Amino acid sequence: MDFDADIPLEELGESVGALDFTAPISLKGRISNVVGMVSLSYSVSTEILLVCDRCLDEFTEDCSRSFEHILVREEKDLVGEDDVLCEDDSLDMTGLCVSDILMGLPTKILCSEDCLGLCPDCGGNLNRGECKCVKEND
Ligand SMILES: [Zn+2]
Ligand SMILES: [Zn+2]
């Protein structure tokens, strides 16, 4: 079974948790049943607002990823880390993709590889040019 869905921003609501989406999530996926094992593979494409851990600036990042899961009906069948419990054959696709995106984020979020961060003295953002205290030390 193939599916194709767009989740508009208004529908993301509370399942978003720590993520701040700036574009609707577009989902494309397939659920297949092979020898009694139901697997779900899907890809998402969206844009999220992140905060750089080093300079605390907000930036948006294109987020296009694909994920795979095994769907199980009962809790006792949960084996692998990527297994998803799908009770009553209902699946919270929005919640799943939000948590997948969240898990896929690096532990250290940087606006760019060579982000200069903040000045330890005045807190100025060094990506926007040298702050006054750097100049005074020269
Ligand atoms: Zn930064
Ligand atoms: Zn400074």
Description:
The chain is an alpha+beta fold and 138 residues long. It has one domain (2-113). It is built from three helices and six strands. It is elongated, with a radius of gyration of 20 Å. The termini are far apart. The mean pLDDT is 89. The structure holds zinc ion (2 copies). One zinc ion (ZN) binds next to loops.
User: Helix- and strand-based class?
Assistant: alpha+beta
State the total count of DSSP E strands.
Answer: 6
β content, as a range?
Answer: 35-45%
Instruction: Name the quaternary structure.
Output: single chain
How does the overall form come out from the CA principal axes?
A: elongated
Keywords:
138 residues; alpha+beta; 6-stranded mixed beta sheet; 37% strand; binds zinc ion
Strand-helix topology:
Blueprint: E1 2-7, H1 9-12, E2 20-21, E3 25-34, E4 37-51, E5 58-72, E6 83-85, H2 93-104, H3 132-137
Bound molecules: zinc ion (2 copies).
Residues 119, 121-122, 124, 131, 133-134 line the site of one zinc ion.
What's a quick, concise take on this entry?
The chain is built from 3 helices and 6 strands, in the order βαβββββαα. The protein is α+β, with helices and mostly antiparallel strands.
